[in-house]
Amino acid sequence: MPDRKTVAVAMSGGVDSSVAAYLLHEQGYNVIGVTMQIWLDEGLYELSRADGCCSLSAVDDAEKVCGIIGIPHKVVNFKDVFREKVIRDFIDEYSHGRTPNPCIVCNRYVKWESLLQWSLENGADYIATGHYARVVCLDNGRYTIQRSVTDAKDQTYALYNLTQDQLAHTLMPVGEYEKPEIRRIAKEARLPVSDKPDSEEICFIPDNDYAGFLERELGSRTPPEGNFVTSDGRILGRHKGITHYTIGQRRGLGLPMGHHVFVTGIRPETNEVVVGEGDDVYTSTLSCTGLNFMSISGEELPVGKSRRLFCRIRYRHPGEWCTVYRTAGDRLEARFEAPVRAVTPGQAAVMYDGDHIACGGTIEKRETE
């Protein structure tokens, strides 16, 4: 590479980010491995030691990998911004009856905004991650996220909220490979994380007890018990607090109905959890706000106009075709061609044009509410 660009690689200590650093080094980049310190206090120390992307052991693994590749390794403290942007948003959203996706918030404000700023200030031209996605610049001059070569590991959904400037300074080499190939590359390069398992849980809740975490954080402000109700207000029983529930949930309701029922809505203003039948979980329309445009600009979808796009409403959702209407400056309405299950306020609605992200936003409400 003639100009030998510098790239700071976000290294979690896992195999994907390790191979991303290795591939970029092999391509001739001047690579710096950066592990973001975002664990919050010593109370999480033992729980966070094992495999998570934010664990303390991640520093050791990343440092070993950097030593083998022959690149410098740095640890940067983003603890304050992580608590301010990710933890606080998570707590606030659940407290108001919504179900957030903290990885999307972390990607936008920590892994990109904070890391990119640090990297540029320290002489880097790009940042890179081990996400299964690809950054492309289209003929219209806009940057967007393209699906990875493997649907099984595709992570584009969680990246919809990145800005044009962030994308212009981002590399994602892992998006060109399938997972077995990444492990093979790691093994051939003798990286010690080649067989390290993937981390699935939310990093700051390693025991997956969301409600317990929220109760500890909120203390006396924890939403109290309230009523399970039908959509027309008939009381069915008592719930443990709205932070224990999400749309589509069936397990753990404790209602003696004699058949399966599901959470179809959460009403924080009255402290009620709405319960219905299986069909009630489906809807054909949603609205979202907090819009971010990628392959298309906001000017290409002005207020009053529509476009047919493919929409995913959560990370593992296979997606469904819909007509997207720009109903206001910061609001889209998606009308699906087939009903979709468990549209959940707080989650993201990500719209695709082919294999590129067109735009997306945070789900505000579903038609039946």
Task: Give me a quick take on this structure.
The chain is an alpha/beta fold and 369 residues long. 23% of the residues lie in helices and 30% in strands.
Description:
The chain has 369 residues and is α/β, with parallel strands linked by helices. The protein contains seven helices and 17 strands. The chain has helices at residues 15-26, 57-69, 79-95, 102-121, 164-168, 179-188, 210-218; strands at residues 6-10, 30-37, 73-77, 126-128, 133-137, 143-147, 170-171, 226-229, 235-239, 262-267, 272-276, 282-293, 306-312, 320-328, 331-341, 348-353, 356-366. The strands form four sheets. Strands 12-15-14-13-16-17 form a six-stranded antiparallel beta barrel. It has a five-stranded parallel sheet with strand order 3-2-1-4-7, sandwiched between helices. It has a four-stranded mixed sheet with strand order 9-8-11-10, with no helix packed on it. Helix 1 runs parallel beside helix 2 (57-69) and helix 3 (79-95) packs antiparallel against helix 4.
The stretches of 5 or more residues where confidence is low (pLDDT under 50) are 44-50
Give the percentage of residues in beta strands. 25-35%
Read across the widest sheet, the strand sequence of neighbours is: 12-15-14-13-16-17
Report the major sheet. Answer: 6 strands, antiparallel, barrel
Give the N-to-C terminal Cα separation.
56 Å
Classify the secondary structure makeup into a structural class.
Answer: alpha/beta
Overall shape: it is globular
Mean pLDDT: 92
Helices and strands, in order, run as EHEHEHHEEEHEHHEEEEEEEEEE
Enumerate how many helices there are, as a single number: 7
